[in-house]
């Protein structure tokens, strides 16, 4: 159970401080009232316990939940009652458990964003940021509706990408396994055949390198496998840190072919979230802070935060975005013109629509290019192996 620090006063006005262990803030207030103390401040010193194992909630189910919550609130149903309705009707045990916790925290006085923020792996940073902005700006229903649309769009993109990449990935895995098996079990059988050429120093360099690589793989493949697994686990753990995620996001937008897709998606999300917030009257500095979290890319997020600092000093938005080097020139020019004409929120939403349409086309092109690239890489590896084994054979045949 979490601990709460409190500052209270006695009926005589004397200041009293201390700490209590309780399930909720409401229990702390009740405890203080029972001791005839008037609370001045109650603060949680440790976060409330949350379920450590929550079943994964499918994106489509989350999108439906957001949309239904938006409809209930728009119809005038109070937030707590809306959460109770969603909790009763869902059949997914993981979502039911999380909604029960969200309901409890909201009942204790937390905002919807604060309650959902305890489960970032379920709801996601972008969704929580949008809901927080909606709660602060008084457009929670629209924010939930937007989050539902975002979630559905992202899930459609994920499924479409996964479906398109299924064959190239399968091809890459099978091809790698075939090459590894050939290197470990097939290539060593040629070593005795080429002993005479190696002794005379006439063995082609590519064949010698192939045989040496095969010998190392055959002798140490268990250790190589364990090393790869350990390295993979270490990298996966490092990528969960702030520094690792920043590096991963930087690499993503610099990848050939698919890097433009990642960048366009991040910029589109930034423009849509910022346009929505400005359209609903949220101050631009606060909108930029929220939009930085909603990009889904820490590199762009840092650039947006730097832009918010410059805007606080009286500068325009287009200048810092251009200086970051991550925003397309066309987007920067449109933002600059929109600032001059005072139509920034509408232009940002138009930019988001245009970028999303362009991203679909870029994704189709990227996926179509990946398949032949994988085929060429596999063919190149097999061709290299065959040539390395045929060259000595051809040399021996000419010497007979």
Strand runs, count: 3
Distance between the termini: 85 Å
Major sheet: size, sense and barrel closure? 3 strands, antiparallel
Q: How does the overall form come out from the CA principal axes? A: elongated
How do you describe this structure in short?
By secondary structure, the chain is mainly alpha-helical. The protein contains 17 helices and three strands. The chain has three domains: 3-44; 59-148, Receptor-associated Protein, CATH 1.20.81; 149-400, Receptor-associated Protein (Up-down Bundle), CATH 1.20.81.30.
Describe this structure in words.
The protein is mainly α and 400 residues long. It folds into three domains: 3-44; 59-148, Receptor-associated Protein (Up-down Bundle); 149-400, Up-down Bundle (Receptor-associated Protein), CATH 1.20.81.30. It has 17 helices and three strands. It has helices spanning 25-34, 59-74, 79-89, 93-107, 112-117, 120-123, 125-137, 140-186, 195-200, 205-238, 242-252, 259-279, 284-294, 298-312, 318-324, 329-341, 344-399, and strands at 3-9, 15-21, 38-44. The protein has a three-stranded antiparallel beta sheet, with helices on one face. The longest helix is centred in the C-terminal third of the chain and has 56 residues, at 344-399. 26% of the residues are buried. Residues 46-52 have low confidence and may be disordered.
Write the layout of secondary structure elements.
Elements: E1 3-9, E2 15-21, H1 25-34, E3 38-44, H2 59-74, H3 79-89, H4 93-107, H5 112-117, H6 120-123, H7 125-137, H8 140-186, H9 195-200, H10 205-238, H11 242-252, H12 259-279, H13 284-294, H14 298-312, H15 318-324, H16 329-341, H17 344-399
Antiparallel strand pairs: 1-2, 1-3
């Amino acid at each position: 159970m979490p601990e709460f620090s409190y500052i209270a006063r006695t009926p005589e006005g004397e200041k009293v401080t201390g700490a209590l262990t309780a399930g909720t803030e409401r229990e702390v207030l009740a405890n203080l009232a029972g001791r005839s103390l008037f609370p001045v401040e109650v603060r949680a010193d440790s976060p409330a316990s949350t379920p450590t194992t929550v079943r994964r909630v499918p994106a489509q189910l989350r999108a439906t939940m957001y949309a239904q919550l938006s409809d209930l609130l728009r119809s005038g149903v109070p937030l707590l009652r809306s959460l109770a309705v969603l909790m009763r009707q869902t059949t997914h045990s993981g979502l039911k458990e999380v909604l029960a916790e969200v309901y409890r925290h909201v009942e204790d006085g937390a905002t919807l964003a604060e309650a959902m923020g305890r489960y970032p792996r379920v709801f996601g940073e972008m969704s929580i940021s949008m809901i927080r902005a909606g709660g602060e700006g008084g457009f929670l229903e629209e924010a939930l509706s937007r989050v539902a649309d975002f979630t559905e769009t992202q899930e459609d993109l994920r499924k479409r990408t996964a479906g398109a990449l299924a064959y190239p990935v399968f091809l890459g895995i099978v091809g790698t396994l075939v090459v590894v098996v050939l290197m470990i079990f097939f290539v060593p059988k040629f070593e005795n055949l080429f002993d005479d050429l190696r002794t005379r120093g006439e063995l082609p360099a590519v064949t010698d390198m192939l045989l040496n690589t095969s010998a190392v793989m055959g002798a140490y493949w268990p250790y190589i496998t364990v090393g790869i697994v350990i390295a993979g686990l270490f990298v996966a753990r490092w990528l969960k840190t702030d520094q690792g995620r920043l590096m991963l996001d930087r690499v993503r937008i610099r990848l050939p072919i698919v890097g433009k897709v990642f960048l366009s998606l991040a910029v589109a999300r930034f423009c849509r979230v910022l346009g929505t917030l400005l359209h609903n009257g949220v101050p631009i500095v606060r909108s930029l802070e929220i939009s930085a979290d909603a990009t889904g890319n820490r590199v762009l997020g840092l650039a947006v935060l730097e832009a918010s600092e410059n805007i606080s000093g009286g500068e325009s938005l287009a200048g810092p975005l251009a200086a970051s080097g991550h925003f397309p020139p066309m987007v920067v020019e449109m933002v600059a013109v929109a600032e001059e004409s005072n139509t920034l929120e509408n232009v940002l939403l138009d930019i988001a629509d245009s970028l999303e349409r362009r991203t679909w086309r870029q994704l189709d092109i990227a996926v179509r290019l990946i398949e032949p690239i994988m085929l060429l890489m596999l063919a190149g590896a097999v061709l290299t192996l065959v040539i390395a084994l045929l060259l000595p054979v051809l040399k021996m045949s000419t010497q007979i």
